[in-house]
Structure formats: structure tokens, C-alpha cells
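Students often ask what a holo structure prediction actually looks like on paper. The answer is less mysterious than it sounds. You provide the chain, you provide the ligand, and the output is a string of C-alpha cells encoding the 3D arrangement of the protein together with acetamide.
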Amino acid sequence: MKTIISLIFVVWLVNFGFAQKNPIIPEPVSVQFTEGKYMKVDQINFFCSPEEEFLIRNFSHQLAGLGVKLGKAKKSAIKSANLILEKTNQVSGNEAYRLIISPKAVNVQASTYTGLFYGLQSLLHLAVSNPQPNGLQIPCGTVLDQPRFGWRGLMLDESRHFFGKEKVKQLLDWMAFYKLNKFHWHLTDSHGWRLEIQKYPKLTSVGGIGNFHNSEAPAAFYTQAEIKELVRYAADRFIEVIPEIDMPGHATAANRAYPEFSGGGSERYPEFTFNPGKEATYGFLTDILKEVAGLFPSRYIHLGGDEVHFGNQQWNTNSDVQLLMKKHNLKDLQAVEFYFINRMTDSIAALNKTMIGWDEIVTSGVPAEKCLTMWWRHDKPEQLKMAFEKDYQTVLCPRIPLYFDFVQHHSHKSGRYWAKDYAPIEKILGFNQLYKEALSTRPELVKGLQANLWTETIHSGERLDFMTFPRIAALAEIGWSSSPQPDYAGFMQRMQNSFRLYQSKKIAFFNPENPESTPEIVEVKK
Ligand code: ACM
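The corresponding C-alpha cells follow.
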């Protein structure tokens, strides 16, 4: 009995007493604090190799950006240093790290720069959770950590609405804070072409005009110099940028610029496709991809490949397509689509890149070693099953709950529903239960998770914030943490830190704990 009472007391102490709670999102593998002990400093004296100094510079910049006031960081001898970066093979795993925090110093250990960077991100969470008027106060202890998945992605659609460089940088900053590492950039679609291609300037001067709610909005796009700047900005935060050039559908904007490569559309989706029957189309698109390959160091280029049937009806009467069908014995429009996908996959392979396609490509016959697929149609589990049967590397991004253009609270009026289903934060945290089978059938093929921010209903930076925050943190939690079931209450407690930061950075977030306190930022209708 006595033992049970002591045990209850200890449990109480840990949960409700004086115990320092872990404030880090995503939740690390292990966090142990030494009660009552802190490392307190008003200036960072760092010790690291010259090659690692950029990590300290980035970290200092992040601290200042989040309102932590410190003297200028100084290089120091190891004996007097209070922040020591240590590259060591004792911590294994490309993104793994260990933090050892004593009253005198923090040791960040990892076998890679990436690991050191993630160690510093966790340190950042510890620093901002104990705000001081000046300096830092970090609880002493040890953090051991490594991610569950190597792909922790966020996609932004800048075709439907264009947000611009500063907004993208802000998003990349928050991705880094939550240890997300893949930024999938949907740069072309029917409502606007947003990427400068030097060989075909009309893609942006004509194709860049308009957006989802105003077809006459002035041309908006990124120059190649801006793309390079953002790719570098992301790389400094250990984020890989994956461009998407959607084809053969969702091509209306490109077709406005270069109608000679249009394969037509349907009544609802006019000029929706590229012309797969015209040889010149392959040259045109390959030229574009050559420039894309030069701009983005990622080994991947996303080719889209989704929803072609929305607007390929004119292929039935297009003489080029009809000839192609005869020549290659293609029995229907889907066979034409797959012929196109296979050819463009080869173009990408010839550029030494790997193709990514939405889950439509699983049926296309593209060999598994040449591509990666993204499973998005949660109502088509058979598509995922087939991806696994064909050994496709797969990223899971099912609409429910990982499409962030779906509403996140039953009281919200703007955004999508699937029947009555939507994408609240509880559902994101419940991902492991919801997708148990998807995660366990061929775990070696699941590269990771991704949320997608489609922007038909998102016209402004404020509404983008509202749909992104705090779901981005829950995405990070399920993508990084190995916890079989993140607990909602514990997660929300850790979120208090983030909510405070969102407020101080004027992020227009949604607070699911107190929905009335953060009224919905609604869409602008056409
Ligand atoms: C998609 O949502 N069309 C991939």
C-alpha cells in the first residue's frame, strides 16, 4: 500500500507538480529534465568548427526573430563556451541529434549538419518557452531525438493565388521551426503560371495574368533570380524545394500563352490539357523542365499528372491525338495520358532527376525506380494498394485530414468538406489510427507525410495563415514523432508556446481550444 501511495505521489509530481514539461513540437523521442536546474546566459559564447558557424548565425537570427534578447554571439574557447556544436558519429541517423544541457553549457551533438540544425531547433523551443526580459533560461537535461519519416512536407499552391516571396519565406521559417523538410511548390496550374522560363517568356507575361477569383489580375510570378533566392533560403533551413509543373492537365494558363501546344479541354475546363499528339509539345515541355532542373537542386521534379479526365475530351477529335493513338495502338484516352506520362518521365530521367506524380500515375506503367507517388485520394484506397503492389515509393497526403484547404472547425464557412468530413487538428493527430493499414502494409515504401495547401479559397496571406496555423504543427507532430498516438491535451499544452509566438508575430492563426477567440478569416468570392 505504502509503495502504491508513493508511486501515486511520484506520478502526481511528474504530471502536475513541479516537473518541467517538455515544450518541444514535434515531440522528441526522449526528454529528461533535471528538476530545478537551468542554464542561464545573456550572450551566446559558441564553440564549433568554422564550417558550422553558419548554424550559429542562423540560430541567433531565429532567436532574435522570436523576441529573445541576447548580446551578440561570440566565438569562444571550448572551456568558456556555453553553446558547443559537436559533430560525432556517436549519434547515428542523418537527422538525429542529442542535446545535453548543464548549468554551464549546451552540447548539441549530431553526425550531420542537419542533425545539429534540428538540435538547435529544439533548443529554440526550450528558449522561447521560458521567456526572460533579457537572455536565455534553458532547463537542464537531455534530449535524444530522430524523426519517424524522412519526408515531412508541405505543399503550397501559388497558381490559384500568388502570395509572393516574403510570405513564402515566413512559411519556410515556420517549417524549419517545426522540423518540416520538404517544400513542394505548385507553381503552375490553370489559373496562373508563376515561374519565369527564359525560353518562353509568354508563360509568365501572359500565363501569369489572373488568379482564381480575378482573371484579370496583373501578371504575378517569380523571376529565376527570386527562385534561386528562395531555394537558398530554404536550403539554409534544411528544406528541399520540389517544384511542380503540372501536366498534361491543369495547363490552361500555359495554353493561353502558347496555344499551339494546347490539346483542348472541356466545357467546364477549357484549354485544360497539353497536346500529347503533337511531337513539338514534348520538346516545349522538355525545354521548360531543363530550366526547372537548373533552378532546383532537388533530385525530384513533380509532374502532376492529376485529374486529366476533367478536360481531355477534345483529344477524341484532335487529329494529332488520333494519329498518335493509331501509331502506338493506344486504345483509349487514358492510354494516351499514360503514354504522355511515360515520355515525360523519361525526359526527367534524362535530366538526372526523378519524377513525382499524384496517385493517378500508379496506373500509368511508369517503372517504380523512376518515380515517387503522392497518395491524395483518400476515397480511393485501391490506388494506394496498387502503389504498394507495384513497389512505388509513396508519400501519404490523403485529403482527410492533410488537405489544409478543408475547414478545420464545424463552425467555419469557407473551405472544403468531403460529404460531412473535414480536417480538424484532432484528426491530424489521430492519423496513425485513421491510416493504420496504409502505414503498416508496406512501411518500407512510405517515405513520409505531406499536407497540401490548395488555394482556391485562400486569397490573402491572412487567410493562408488561418488555414495553416496551427495545423502545420500537428503535421510536424505526426511526421516526426514516433509516438503511436499523440495525445491531444499534451499537444495542446505544448502549443501554448506556439500560440504566444503566433500572436507576437501577428500570425492570423486559429485556436481550436477557443474558437471564438480567433474568428474565421473567410474567403473572397469571385
Ligand atoms: C489534387 O488534389 N488534384 C492532387
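Confidence is low (pLDDT under 50) at residues 10-17.
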